[in-house]
Amino acid sequence: MSGKSRxxxxxxxxxxxxxxKLLEKGxxxxxxxxxxxxxxxxxxxxxxxxxxxxxxxxxGALLLDTERYSEGVDYLRKVEHLSPNDVRPLHLLGAFYIExxxxxxxxxxxxxxxxxxxxxALSHYNYGNFLSEVGRLPEAEVAYRRAIELGPxxxxxxxxxxxxxxxxxKYDEALQQFRIALDLAPKxxxxxxxxxxxxxxxxxxxxxLAAYRESVALxxxxxxxxxxxxxxxxxNGEPQAxxxxxxxxxxxxxxxxxxxxxxGIALRLANRLDESREAFQQAYDLLEEERLQGGDPHDxxxxxxxxxxxxxxxxxxxxxxxxxxxxELDLRAVAELRADLKHLVSVGLTEARVVxxxxxxxxxxVIH
Length: 368
Fold this sequence. Notes:
- This protein is an all-alpha fold and 368 residues long.
- The protein is 73% helix and 0% strand.
- The chain has 20 helices and no strands.
- The protein is globular and about 65 Å long.
């Protein structure tokens, strides 16, 4: 109708979030551990900017974390092409190929990162992790110490060096590094977890328990911290509490044979025999899965010996022990196996005593 003013109506459309807002939203969800929401935000960001390295790097890292490896690698390689001087995809791909056991490819990525940023502490730290993984320990120590020199305020650098020293049984030196990390990050659960592991190796059980408890208090859903606490409680003669922590570790994702082996022992000590047998059966099933997937039988035999005893298959356990050759023994694994066997002996499992007597070390070797 003529003569009437026409006022514009407010739009019913919701404004489209900007790329920056979507990335911020995804990062916030990721920080909270909500991976689905983070992925949704990043996917929307990708629709706005399909060639953005910032989007691709986030999606690639997230997809690797959620075990969608092919997609994750594809996104990270796109970043390599779009931004050849960006070291972030190199670090992520290097770490991925370590997990895949493709060590030559992993080293290639880490070396490229070092060439691009020779004075970046993270490049030296990650290369140290790689060198440690492949057993090149002197080179790894050099890399970790260079990372500390370039980034003296980062606790992870000291944890890396400390872990390396612990692997060489240099426990006192390792403890010094962990204490520096603790001074730098007194509320970091990772520091307490690594400290707990070291103190267990040093047989300082009460201190280890305190460290694990602090790690769990700071990060209640970290399965490794729960496992560490459960194992320490088991060593301390608290099987009921140990079983609870080990169940929490399994519920939080640590569904590996060793978790069920330790749970089976704790439940046996607590006289919960049916539950114990069920835990040992789950351990056995997982070991069978690993075997079918090409796992190294020698690496699995220590867990399998306890599992077979827990299932009442003593002769099979004896056969495994008889097949162990002294010069091939992993002394740390043997030390843990002996401790587990002693637990079973303490509840009257005479077959565990037979295995313990069969477990003879080569001359000159001592387990503390």
